[in-house]
Design goal:
The termini are far apart. The chain has 13 helices and no strands. Helices cover about 70% and strands about 0% of the residues. The chain has helices spanning about 1-5, 10-20, 25-35, 40-50, 55-60, 70-80, 85-95, 100-110, 115-130, 135-145, 150-170, 170-185, 200-214. α3 (about 25-35) packs across α5 (about 55-60), α10 runs antiparallel to α11 and α11 (about 150-170) runs parallel beside α13 (about 200-214). By secondary structure, it is an all-alpha fold. The protein is globular and about 55 Å long.
């Protein structure tokens, strides 16, 4: 914890706070520290229990993803209220855990929109890697009915799923683009030069174009 405190950078904190993250540690330095510590499951759990955001990010990097029980991950996700901790926990731990499918189904139906967004993130991965476990037409029905008025974090996760369906599954592409165009979610989101817009029709079209160029 003392070492993490020494890495605190007020400028980094200012940038992170704009994204809802309450820590000031440069992530490259955090990764370097994790690389030095290597995998330490017990230390990971102790770091997580501090409740400190930087410590929790480090905990995620040095944990053993398959070592967590289902209920343990469920509690951790509900505790992970900052976006970066939430995203890293889902991407680096839950996706590699044997309970990920069970958790996906549980979280997907959760009344808490932040928890539900984790279910959608896991579903988006299935769209690309295991679509046989999904009903894509039904997913599009839900997105069409609910994405427009969904809270921000959940809306982003649903929008990513919409784009992924359009990118990966040509038979659903026209409908995915049509839903995006009608709902106009993230249509005016400011996008830096060289980056792809998160507006689903633009995102789908650009990624399909890149696939065809390969």
């Amino acid at each position: 914890m003392a070492e993490l405190a020494a890495l605190e950078d007020p400028k980094a904190r200012k940038v992170n706070e704009k994204h809802g993250d309450d820590h000031g540690v440069n992530l490259s330095k955090l990764r370097a520290l994790a690389k030095r510590l290597k995998t330490q499951q017990e230390l990971s759990r102790r770091l997580w229990d501090t409740g400190d955001t930087a410590a929790r990010l480090l905990a995620i990097l040095i944990c053993r993803p398959k070592a967590f029980e289902r209920d343990e991950l469920d509690v951790m996700l509900r505790e992970a209220r900052t976006p970066k901790v939430h995203d890293w926990l889902v991407s680096y731990v839950v996706k590699k855990n044997p309970h990920s499918e069970e958790l996906r189904l549980t979280w997907f139906a959760d009344s808490d929109p932040v928890v539900a967004s984790a279910g959608w993130a896991l579903t988006t991965e299935r769209v690309a890697k295991k679509p046989e476990v999904l009903d894509l037409a039904e997913l599009l029905d839900v997105i069409e009915a609910e994405m427009k008025d969904a809270p921000e974090r959940l809306q982003w996760a649903m929008n990513h799923c919409l784009a992924q369906i359009g990118i990966e599954h040509p038979e659903h592409r026209t409908r995915a683009i049509d839903i995006g165009e009608r709902l106009e979610v993230l249509k005016d989101y400011p996008t830096s030069s060289g980056c792809t817009s998160p507006f689903a029709p633009t995102w789908i079209t650009e990624m399909v174009r890149r696939q065809h160029e390969k």
